[in-house]
Amino acid sequence: MEPTYRAGERIGAERIDGSEARPGDVVLFQDLAWRPDGSLVMGRVVATGGDRVTCCEGNRISVDGRPLDEPYVRGGDPVGVPGLEFDVRVPDGQLFLAGDDRADSFDSRLRATGDRPGTVPATAVRGRALESPAVPLLLLSGVLGGGVLTVTGLALGTAALIVRRRAQDPPAAPYGHLPVAV
């Protein structure tokens, strides 16, 4: 998935159902046809069920006749393989996926052969990569900040109740003898 994600880089991901995946999302999926060892694979959603994906008029991939704008593709080459051509109708409940380094990615483009669309079942999706590695840190800092504010609010609220109660108590009588008028 270079250049978007580098090999060995830690990424944040959120659990999603495959039906929530949208074109442009980077998803993590598990499909034994793609990785027999069962490890997670990362790919960018190009199209979803019902879409028609074609290649390569003008050296670009098109979905439903509209050429894709893919600024994230390594080297600016959205095809990556000279002479590659395909015309695939993505079956319902399936996703057409591609890597961002198209010259070095064995994805739906290369798996689409004959009557096999090269797609991945949406049920194989395990999560969606967060757009920025800073997102999990921001979420964590928000949770911690919220916890600190809650504890501070409770402490200040308790202090205010104590001060208010003391202000309502009647003053104590002075010590010693009180002068008595006769």
UniProtKB/TrEMBL annotation:
Domain Peptidase S26: 1-129
EC primary class: hydrolase
NCBIfam families listed in its UniProt record: sigpep_I_bact
Pfam family, one: Peptidase_S26
Source organism superkingdom: Bacteria
Membrane topology classification: Single-pass type II membrane protein
Protein name: Signal peptidase I
Family membership noted in the UniProt record: Belongs to the peptidase S26 family.
GO MF terms held by the record: serine-type endopeptidase activity; signal peptidase activity
Compartment(s) where it occurs, according to its Swiss-Prot or TrEMBL record: Cell membrane; Membrane
GO biological process entries: signal peptide processing
Taxonomic placement: Bacteria, Bacillati, Actinomycetota, Actinomycetes, Kitasatosporales
Catalytic activity: Cleavage of hydrophobic, N-terminal signal or leader sequences from secreted and periplasmic proteins
Gene source species: Streptomyces carminius
Residue ranges of the TM segments: 137-163
A GO CC annotation given for this chain: plasma membrane
Enzyme Commission number(s) of this protein: 3.4.21.89
Gene name of this polypeptide: lepB
Keywords attached to this entry: Hydrolase, Membrane, Protease, Transmembrane, Transmembrane helix
